[in-house]
Amino acid sequence: MKSTLLSKRLKELRKVNNYTQDYVASALGVVRQTYSHYETGKRTPNSEVLYKLSGLYGISVNDLIQLSFEIDRDIYYDAPGPTQSSDDLAAFLDFFNNPKNQKKFQNNTNLEKELLYYFEKISHEDKKEIIEFTKIKANKRRQ
Fold first, then answer.
1. Is the pLDDT confidence value at 118 over 50?
2. Total tally of structural domains belonging to the chain
3. Contacts for 27-36 with beta carbons within 8 Å, 24 or more apart?
4. 69 and 116 inside one domain
5. 67-116 pLDDT, tens digit each
6. Of 34, 54, 77, which closes a domain?
């Protein structure tokens, strides 16, 4: 993967979506200078950052890396205001970027991390219900 192609695509995606570097950096949980280095090709985003970028732009990581899609440069979008889902994403990222939690959950997949994050936020009764549901699903899979 040529970082110059990726860096150009990142800048293009940001501009088409009418995002500022500050906005994208905030969504990624990095400082603006780090994000700026992604756009200039001085740094290459790691896999976690690529995953976050794909979520921000609503494309797959594969599309982001392979650069296999076209951007309609004639359409410009206003940057969306914060939504509940973006607040949830920010809280989720803060939780897993906490050094204490990074070590604790380092061997979990992203899907497992998401499940554990939201599982901690629900009541004891809801946890029991989800465990029972999971047992039913697991038993169906074995059959």
1. yes
2. 2
3. 27/52, 27/56, 27/86, 27/89, 27/90, 28/52, 28/53, 28/56, 29/93, 29/94, 29/97
4. no
5. 544 555 565 555 555 555 666 667 777 777 777 777 777 777 777 877 88
6. 77
Q: Let me know: does 82 contact 27? Beta carbons within 8 Å.
A: no
Compute the Cα dihedral for 101, 103, 104, 105 and give only its sign.
positive
Nearest to 12 by CA among 96, 71, 94: 71
Q: Both tokens of residue 7? A: 């860096």
Question: Are the C-beta atoms of residues 62 and 1 closer than 8 Å to each other?
Answer: no
- Residue matched to tokens 């936020």: 121
Share of the chain above pLDDT 90, in %: 18
Same domain? For 20 and 41 the reply is yes
Specify whether 9 is located in the same domain as 62.
Answer: yes
Could you list the residue range(s) of the whole structural domain that residue 48 is in?
1-77
Residue finishing a domain among 77, 96, 131: 77
Binned at pLDDT 50, 70 and 90, residue 2 comes out as very low
